[in-house]
Amino acid sequence: MNPASTARTAVGTALLEDFSLEMTGKDIPKLEEACDTIPQGTRINVTFLGNEDLEMRLAAARAVKRLGFVPVPHISARRLGSRADFEQFLAGLHADGTSDNVFLVGGDPAHPEGPFADSLSLIDTGLLQEYGVRHVGITGYPEGHPAIDGDTLWSALRDKHTALAAQPLEGGVITQFGFDVDPVLAWVEGARGRGIGLPIRIGVPGPAGVRRLMSYASRFGVGTSASVVRKYGFSITNLMGTAGPDRFLRDLATAYDPARHGELKIHFYTFGGLKTTSDWAARFRKDSLA
Hints:
With 290 residues, the chain is α/β, with parallel strands linked by helices. The chain is 46% helix and 17% strand. The strands form 2 sheets. An 8-stranded parallel sheet has the order 1-2-3-4-5-6-7-10. A two-stranded antiparallel ribbon has the order 8-9. Strand 3, helix 4 and strand 4 form a beta-alpha-beta unit. Helix 2 runs parallel beside helix 13 and helix 3 packs parallel to helix 4.
């Protein structure tokens, strides 16, 4: 292996040193099944879905902690019916010892179900620190958002960054997933150029069926032109197969420049399941080091 190839391999495996995963409140049995293949101390985000209730979300965060991982509960601003609902969730997390890390999202509803229209409004309450939160994750959209224009997205990111620094709270960004490294790293450079120095986790879909990947991509406004998905490693004319992020991560390792892009890590969206993703990550890292 030549020196340049060795350096790329080192960068690629370093990106996977501290990856994070995602689960829903219903996925406790799947987490228990996968736990032996997930490195202890891994950050596991627990999503905030409309068809799950408070106890399911709290139970999932408790399970993550019990199994030796770091729970990162999501809080969806637009799905909270009241300030009391927000406090009740934070109080439950605090009582369980699972409130250190949270991830804030605006949420899917077109209209807020309560007083919170966006993530910034949650930060501005001052309640996060009151209930023991120390680290707050926020979202980034390298390929934009289907319902929000680009200038608004950048303004929101800057405002949240400023609000976290003023609290002060530690912060980090997790990006929406994509199939093309180029717009992702261009967005990272744009964030750095705007003075946003937070650590960034690049959202990557774990291995999953092509039909499922395309469905999620359509929902979230992710580019799926024939050339883009071919570059990623699958074809939009063959929806019966599966695809993993091998090529994406190798391209990312090749193009990643810490001097320009700052601290980057990987966040896996587990569309194909927790165990499938964690097994794949272990194999990829082993093969890269071989």
